[in-house]
């Protein structure tokens, strides 16, 4: 008896299916050892469909995974901070909590962004994604921090944002799968907020 025909999905849903599978495979196997056959098996699709909906090559598929995961992380942090009350401390805590929650929920995506792809062929893509996150954090800080007179505020907020992002990344890696987002955010806040408070308007 012939198997039932595969249900046709809109292209966007099929692409999501491929990217979801690819993130799991890249996280598990790394870029060099991952194969399009493995992605096809993980997705339950034929390899030609993976090529069609994944950009046509393994490199492009990883690039799309990086962009999606970084966009998701950025949207999570930005949304939490923007939707918080006016108090800067609360906004920062909620932004950090959203970061740690996103990393915990999408652990495979985090692995692709900050472990598997950082030193590979698409390291520049990861660097660009991280720069977007740092720039967004710097924008959030710029509304609260006061630069010395005559100093470009970006020269104050950007290094602080980069340090904050690096600390959050390191803490997320240290915590692994067992970290509680609230506890991790509170831990980092206890380290950075006293210094940030000195620079507030």
UniProtKB/TrEMBL annotation:
Keywords: DNA-binding, Transcription, Transcription regulation
Domain of life: Bacteria
Coiled-coil zones: none
Pfam (any one): TetR_N
Domain HTH tetR-type, first and last residues per copy: 12-72
Gene Ontology MF terms in the entry: DNA-binding transcription factor activity; transcription cis-regulatory region binding
Annotated signal sequence range: none
InterPro entries per UniProt: DesT_TetR_C, Homeodomain-like_sf, HTH-type_TetR-like_transc_reg, HTH_TetR
DNA-binding region positions on the chain: 35-54
Protein name: AcrR family transcriptional regulator
Organism for this UniProt entry: Pseudonocardia alni (Amycolata alni)
Upper taxonomic lineage: Bacteria, Bacillati, Actinomycetota, Actinomycetes, Pseudonocardiales
């Amino acid at each position: 008896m012939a198997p039932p025909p595969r249900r046709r999905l809109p292209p966007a849903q099929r692409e999501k299916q491929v990217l979801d599978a690819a993130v799991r495979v890249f996280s598990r196997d790394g870029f060099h050892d991952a194969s399009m056959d493995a992605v096809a098996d993980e997705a339950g699709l034929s390899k030609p469909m993976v090529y069609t909906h994944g950009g046509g090559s393994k490199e492009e598929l990883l690039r799309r995974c990086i962009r999606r995961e970084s966009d998701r992380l950025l949207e999570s942090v930005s949304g939490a901070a923007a939707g918080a009350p006016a108090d800067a401390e609360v906004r920062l805590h909620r932004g950090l909590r959203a970061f740690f929650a996103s990393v915990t929920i999408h652990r495979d995506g985090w692995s692709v962004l900050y472990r598997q792809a950082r030193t590979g062929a698409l390291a520049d893509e990861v660097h660009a994604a991280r720069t977007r996150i740092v720039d967004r954090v710097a924008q959030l800080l710029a509304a609260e921090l006061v630069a010395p007179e005559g100093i470009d505020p970006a020269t104050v907020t950007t290094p602080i944002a980069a340090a904050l992002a690096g600390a959050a990344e390191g803490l997320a890696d240290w915590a692994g799968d067992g970290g509680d987002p609230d506890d991790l955010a509170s831990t980092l806040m206890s380290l950075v907020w006293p210094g940030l408070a000195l620079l507030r308007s």
